Amino acid sequence: MRHYNIPIFIPHLGCPYNCIYCDQKKISAQTEAADNHQILRIIDQHLTTIIRPAEIEAAFFGGSFTAIRPDLQENYLRLLQPYIEQNLIQGIRISTRPDCIDNKTLELLHRYGVQTIELGVQSLNNEVLRQSGRIYQAEDVEKSSALIKQGGFKLGIQLMVGLPGDNYDRDLETVRKTIAIAPQMVRIYPTLVLAGTKLEQMWQEGKYQALTLEEAVPVCRDMLLQLAKAGIPVIRLGLYPGEELRQEGTVKAGPFHPSFGELVEQAVFREQAMLAIKLFQQRYGGRERCTLNVNERDLSKLLGKKRSNLISIQRSSGLQELNVQTCQHEKRDWIGIIIEPAGADKFILTRTEFLNSIN
């Protein structure tokens, strides 16, 4: 059954801090928190477009929900109860800070049908957290995550790459700690330098260097692969490219791309295809040409932008000719290799086999 989130943005609402990179009003393309009438209209409009059967959650994003005044939290949650009672939505999702979770808060959320709590963790390296102005430490994340899971909620963790003080090793350290926490889902966002933030000032003064797109994609690829190997789905890669982010002058630096997640998926397919060819050649001997076989829905991920993946794979594999065929019956994320000229599948590398080959 497909899952749908109905997004309700409450930019900065409840958040007492101002992290150096943050401008939720630009990220969410919304300057003010939705009022009661707007929330009801948002839900009603979305419900008319969702194809059933589906699992639907109303999702409060953009602020620290559990840092809002308790009476305002309860107002928002009570507003959604008729939809839950009529089974029009199946639950509520919120996002908040790791240091804004306690048992009393969780009791309130549980009472009103909150199912999923996403924590804006960003990093599990204390130095990165300190330089980013996050106040809390990794140990606080572990404690709040444990409380959430003990309370019977689904746990989501939001991570960022390219924060001040961050590097590849610290990103992979964060992933290892995230896997140990065992959330039900993860989102990964590259850090962008947004106009008007403290991070922009640091960048202007030469105190911060943003990741390039070419640097961010491999980092996120390796994080994605480690999480996938652990069975933890990554439900979002990159910020939603809303109108505000696309406006000239909003993003000053950093790896912004409207299809960032697709670029990461393409990088994964490239690595998987290169391993498939290597293993195929080890088993069947060197070949001057071969044809890769993938599900038709995975074709763009294998080819890459302007066939860049295919060019890179062919060059790295030393093949004189490399072709691709699609098959609607091929399983998703599998890569088959057709022996030439016989035209029969001789080798398949599944995504699970590929993940198991990763250290």
Task: Please name the defining characteristics of this protein.
359 residues, alpha/beta, TIM Barrel, hypothetical protein PF0899 fold, 2 domains, 7-stranded parallel beta sheet, 4-stranded mixed beta sheet, 13 strands, globular
Topology pattern, helix = H, strand = E: EHHEHHEHEHHEHEEHHEHEHEHHEEEH
CATH superfamily of the largest domain: Aldolase class I
Distance between the termini: 33 Å
Question: Multimeric state of these chains?
Answer: single chain
Share of β-strand residues: 15-25%
Extended strand count: 13
Q: In CATH terms, what is the architecture of the largest domain?
A: Alpha-Beta Barrel
CATH class of the largest domain: Alpha Beta
Per the CATH scheme, the topology name of the largest domain is TIM Barrel
What global shape is seen? globular
Q: Which sequence of strands runs across the widest sheet?
A: 1-2-3-4-5-6-8
Return residue spans where pLDDT drops below 50 for at least 5 consecutive residues. 25-30
Helix content: 40-55%
Structural Rg: 22 Å
Overall structural domain count:
2
Separate helix tally: 15
Mean pLDDT: 92
Summarize the biggest pleated sheet. Answer: 7 strands, parallel
Strand pairing plus helix content: what structural class?
alpha/beta
